[in-house]
Amino acid sequence: MPLRVELKPFERIVIGETVIINSGIRTSFLIDGEAPILREKDTVTAETANTPVKRLYFCIQMMYLKNDIPRYRTSYLGLLKDLRETLPGSREQIDAANAHVTSGALYKALKEIRKLMKREEEQVAA
Fold first, then answer.
1. Residue 76: which H helix or E strand, with range?
2. Cα–Cα distance measured from residue 34 to residue 61, given in angstroms and rounded to the nearest whole number
């Protein structure tokens, strides 16, 4: 079943290694296939990966978008270790994300890490 995507004016979406930028009007389209897809709001850049949570998210994001877990495995394991040491109280969510990575469900892993990113942002704001 195709994925229906609706983009706001000038919103971006990443499909695989391609960035699509919407024109000046709201647009919707269907995507049929197995390509990895992320909305711009769900991406982290190398420059914005400035916390342990965001660095791990960026690594998993690259695994997902480039469809290449082995290439990032060593880096991932180091970042995972750092995050476990930095946030020992979040072990359950970190382990859930790691289980998804191990099983190849990278999008689900990104969703788990986004929860940690949100919590991290709330703590900084408080």
1. helix 69-86
2. 16
**In the predicted model, what is the mean pLDDT of residues 57-79?**
96
Rounded distance between C-alpha atoms, residue 58 and residue 103, angstroms: 18
63 touches 126 (CB < 8 A): no
Q: Which DSSP category does 90 fall into? A: G
In which residue are the tokens 């390509």 written? Answer: 35
Distance of CA 11 to the CA centre of its chain: 17
Phi, psi (degrees; rounded to nearest 5) at 102: -60, -35
Domain boundaries, the chain: 3-42, 52-125
Instruction: Please check whether residue 91 is in contact with residue 85, taking contact to mean a CB–CB distance below 8 angstroms.
Output: no
Please check whether residue 107 is in contact with residue 36, taking contact to mean a CB–CB distance below 8 angstroms: yes
Cβ-based neighbour number of residue 45 at 10 Å: 9
- The model's confidence at residue 102, banded by pLDDT at 50, 70 and 90, is very high
Express each pLDDT in 41-62 by its tens digit.
Answer: 999 999 999 999 999 999 999 9
Contact predicate 39/16, CB 8 Å? no
